[in-house]
Each structure stands twice: as C-alpha cells, then as structure tokens.
Amino acid sequence: MTRVLLRSTVLAGLLALGIAPPVAGADDREERVIEAFGRGDLATAERLLEELLAADPGHPEHLYNLACARSLRGDQEDAARRLLEAVDAGFRDRRIIEEDPDLAALRAHAAFAAVREVLDRTGDRPNADAARSSLAAWLDRFGPSRYRVEEDRERSLVIATSLGEASHREMIEMLDAQADHQVRTLFGRHPEHPVLLVVATPEDAARFFASSTTAGLYDHARRRLVTRDIGESLRHEFTHLLHHAQMERLGQKHPIWIQEGLASLYEAYVLAPDGSIEFTPNSRHNVAFRATRAGAMRPWSEVLALDPKGFMKEANRLYPQVRSMFEFIDAEAGLPRFWEAYLRTYSQRPDGSAALEEVLGEDLAALDKRWKRWVVERGGIDDSVRPGDASLGIEGEDLPDGVKVTRILPSSAASAAGVRRGDVLLAIDEAPIRSGREMLLAIAARRVGETVSLRLRRGAGTIELAAVLRPLPRGATGTGISPPSRDRGADR
What we know:
Helices cover 49% and strands 14% of the residues. It has helices at residues 2-10, 29-38, 42-55, 60-72, 76-89, 94-99, 104-107, 112-122, 130-142, 165-187, 202-208, 232-250, 256-265, 285-293, 300-305, 308-313, 315-333, 335-345, 353-360, 364-378, 413-417, 436-444; strands at 148-152, 157-161, 195-199, 216-219, 224-227, 269-271, 277-279, 390-391, 394-399, 402-408, 424-428, 431-432, 451-458, 461-468, 470-471. The strands form 4 sheets. Strands 9, 10, 11, 12, 13 and 14 form a 6-stranded antiparallel β-sheet that branches. The chain has a 5-stranded mixed β-sheet with strand order 1-2-3-5-4, with helices on both faces. Strands 6-7 form a two-stranded antiparallel ribbon.
C-alpha cells in the first residue's frame, strides 16, 4: 500500500519534482520495483533499485525508494544516508518524507535528525548547483572529450553537445527563438537556476535511455534535459524545461494533460519574423484524426481528470489527443489568452476547466463535441510513402542533427541526384530534417516528378543537391525510410 501512495507521487505526482513519468516501452524495472514492494519482497526491490541507480546515478526517486527499502528491513543508518542523497538530488517534498509509513522506523531513529536538519536548511528550494553536478556526472560517465560545453547565462543553460559547428549553431538559434517566444507569450521569464541541456551521441543515448523508443526527457529535480535529436524531441523537452520553471516559481503543479499537451504542441511549428507562430501537423496528427473519426477519443472531462499513471497507460492515444486539443485551443482562442486565464483560475480549478470554459465559451461537454467536429473537418495528412508514391528511395538511421543514409535504392531519385551512402540529410527545401520521422512527412506530401532541394553533410563539408522524386518501386520494403518511431516526452 505504501508503494501505491508513493507512486502516486512518483508516478502521479512526479510533476512536483519535474521528472517525466515513464512512457510506453520504458524500462519495466520501475514497475517491478512497485510490484516487489507490494508483495513485501524487499530484496528484489533493493536489487532492482541498485541496478537502476547504476544506470542513472543520483536519480532522486530511486534513491528515495531505496531509503524506504533500507528502513523497512531495519538498516536505519543506510536509510538515512540514502534519504540525504535523495534530498541532495532534489527530492524535497517534506510532507511525503514526514508521512510515508515506510520511513516510520527511520523517523524514530536518531539518524533522522540529520535529514530534518537538511530539510530545515534547504526547504523546497532547488539545488542551484544541480545542473553543474549533472554535467560532471554526465562527463564522468561518458567522457569529457566527446562533448563541447558552453554556458548561456541569459537563458540559464549549460549546453553539452557533440554536434558539428553548423548544426550546433542552428540548434542554438532555434532554442533562442523558441525561448524568446515562449517567455514572451507564456512563461514570463527564463529559469532562475541553470539547467543542463545534453544532446547525446547515438552511442551514449543508447546507454542512457532505458528504452530505444524514448527520444528525450526533462528531469527538473536534477535540472537536466537529455535528447537524442535537435528536432521535435528537443523542442518538446525544452518546453517542459521552461514550463517547470514557471510552475516552481508560481507554486503550481499543472496536470499531465496540460504539461504533455503543451510540450507536444511545440514539437512542430513555424515562427514568423514578426513573432507570430503557426503550429504545424506532425506524426501525431493522423493518430488524433483517425481515432476521432472512429469515436475512440477520450471525452475532455476524462482527460482533464487523468493522473500521470493513467495518462501513460494510454500514451499512444493521449499524446496525439492532447496535442490536438491544444491546437484547437490556439485556433479558437489563442494560446496566450488561454494561458493567462489558466494561471489566473488555477486556484479555482487546477484541471484547466475554468479557463477552457472562459476562453472558449462553452462547458466541457459542448467543447468536446465542437473539438471533435473540428478535428474531422480538418482532415488527415499524407504521412506514408508506399510503392508508387513519390520517394527519395533511401533508408537511413537517426543522428542527433539529421538522417544518415544507409541504403540507396537503384534508379531512385537519390541515386540520380548523387546522394551517397554515409551522407547525412540535414534539410529538404530549407526545412530542417532532424529525424527519419520528419523526413517521411516531408516526402509523403510530395508528388512524383517534383524537384526538391537536399542539404547534406558529406565528410566535413555541406553540399546541396536537387532531386527529382521518383515512384517507390513495388519491390521496395516498407516506405524506403525506416527510422525507429520514438515517443517524445519521456518525459518525460
């Protein structure tokens, strides 16, 4: 029972700490920890937690749970040590620490005095050195020679990437533009304390992320954002970064549908020179369209009531749904107007219903129907490349800043244009391509015979090629574009 209580804080209330709940496909050891606690198998729980900490040293939730396990089996000295490590890593919810039944024996022990002293001194204040501690731990684990590090004091960022100069600069320009827009329209200011932002190498990402389907995460307690790519995943997690800073500043804990809907919304957009923004369809678009047309979408009243654990059980359907809900809010009322109303009415109804009804003018049931009509009328987008469709005729693998060409079909558009194996596709017609998913959508909307401009990295240089799209041969497997499909926001 204690694990259920804790996990509604660690899964249903991880938002307080800013640690993204696990997405579908995430490491099942976390769920196995819960199960082990539930059946009183402390040895298994401890073993799994130690494995998790070996993979991610200093994780505040795992340290806290290990402290609980140590206390339950009577080792109060080590329980206090682990709890102090958890507090130092960012677990500072004093109510949980003072009330959790698993720590009852520890609270009665003299060793708990040191924990209370630290809590009295730190309170709920964030660890101002968390980003630099996270950077030191990252470089110690993966090697300092693999990453260039720079600090952006204006935006409170410590940035570590292994990108080339051009891609690094493009990433910085994108982040600057997104940060300035979101601070101006939604979040009010940049984070008060530095945050580490890591664009991991493919090898390091494979070691760091528990699942190959996780594209990125933001851990607010440790002030650490880690992403595989500088496209949709980074834009999603960076939105979480700014959002959590605002929640911390205001003392608010926004529900999961708002956190993930807002972050998913910013995965794909076009920022105009005048500062206006247009949110554009991405791979989530057709999921929402098809589910709505099939009558499979959750009513808004149910979505607003979901806790993180319930949300993540239906992540594949709910991420597209909440992105679509935010697209609708922006189209009907304007996102800044809704956000102002939400922050103002948060104390009345934290689920967002008061703000929705105020700015959209109807109750939730009517808004749900109105939104579903809007989704169906808007229609779907072309999101696949089948035999006979326009195609580049390449297969690739994701890199942090583009798609590495691993195969070129004979007599394909790419072959005729002069694309080579090992080239990295960076842009199509000036639109950045940061993943195979983005490449697929860029080509799926085209017609046979269209000419597209390709920007590629070849060796140390960058080249431009023109490709006339040709039909994908019937004998070709899949779509000709075969990156792994990943969840954003493992947040994560």
